[in-house]
Design a protein that fits this description.
Elements lengths: L26 H16 L7 H11 L3 H12 L1 H9 L1 H6 L9 E6 L4 E6 L8 H4 L4 H4 L1 H9 L1 H7 L9 E6 L4 E6 L11 H5 L4 H5 L7
Parallel strand pairs: 1-4, 2-3
Helix pairs in contact: 3-4, 8-9
Length: 212
């Protein structure tokens, strides 16, 4: 199965540690995390309340940000080309700050369907799509999406014909992916707002197909 030539032993240096107040932390971990935060604040490295503000900011990011990017790519051929060639710069045109994230945009076509997974944890383009869904983080999805992607897609209601190649892209801490879905027929003349309304989070992961 095509797998984007990606090596799975990719040494994730993840940003997925739970916040200090997460109940999955042991009491020792929570105490150490809070102590470290206070030391960084006292040293002037972190502003007071910065951790909480960043958590709130991430919680406020919705898939609609990614949907707006997709809609612009559908409506504007020049933006489409910039998004494929220089995705971080193109996203910044719509006010999306990817903060140094290396983003690669993969486009669904009449001959290729792309799917995103993170085989070791849940690396994900959070700045575009918000918090990843639970199923994306599940061991079942992370393992099966690589081995039997067509079966997994079928369970999401996406039947990919045999003549269409399925490519699975493995996200890492250093490289995130965004699927650019194919624009549905019958949407000619639609505004960007109307186009964005049919772009779902799952379509930008590759486990759904937008429909008019």
């Amino acid at each position: 199965m095509p797998h984007d030539g990606h090596d799975h032993d990719h040494g994730h240096d993840h940003d997925h540690a739970p916040p200090p107040d997460d109940p999955s932390f042991s009491s020792d971990q929570a105490i150490a995390a809070r102590a470290l935060r206070l030391l960084l604040e006292e040293a002037g490295i972190l502003a007071p309340g910065e951790v909480a503000r960043q958590i709130d900011r991430m919680d406020g990011i919705q898939p609609s940000m990614g949907a707006a990017v997709v809609a612009r790519a559908w409506a504007d051929p020049a933006f489409h080309d910039r998004l494929i060639a220089t995705p971080v710069a193109a996203c910044s045109e719509l006010g999306v700050d990817l903060q140094g994230t290396h983003l690669h945009v993969v486009e669904n076509t009449a001959s290729v369907h792309n799917v995103i997974v993170c085989t070791l944890c849940s690396c994900y383009p959070k700045m575009l799509l918000g918090i990843p869904p639970d199923w994306y983080k599940s061991y079942e999805y992370r393992s099966r999406a690589v081995i039997e992607p067509r079966a997994v897609l079928a369970e999401f209601g996406v039947a990919v014909p045999e003549e269409i190649e399925v490519r699975v892209h493995d996200s890492t801490a250093d490289l995130r992916y965004l699927v650019l879905p194919a624009r549905p027929a019958g949407t000619e003349g639609w505004s960007e707002e109307k186009l964005a309304a049919i772009v779902t989070r799952d379509a930008m992961i590759g486990t759904a197909i937008p429909s008019a």
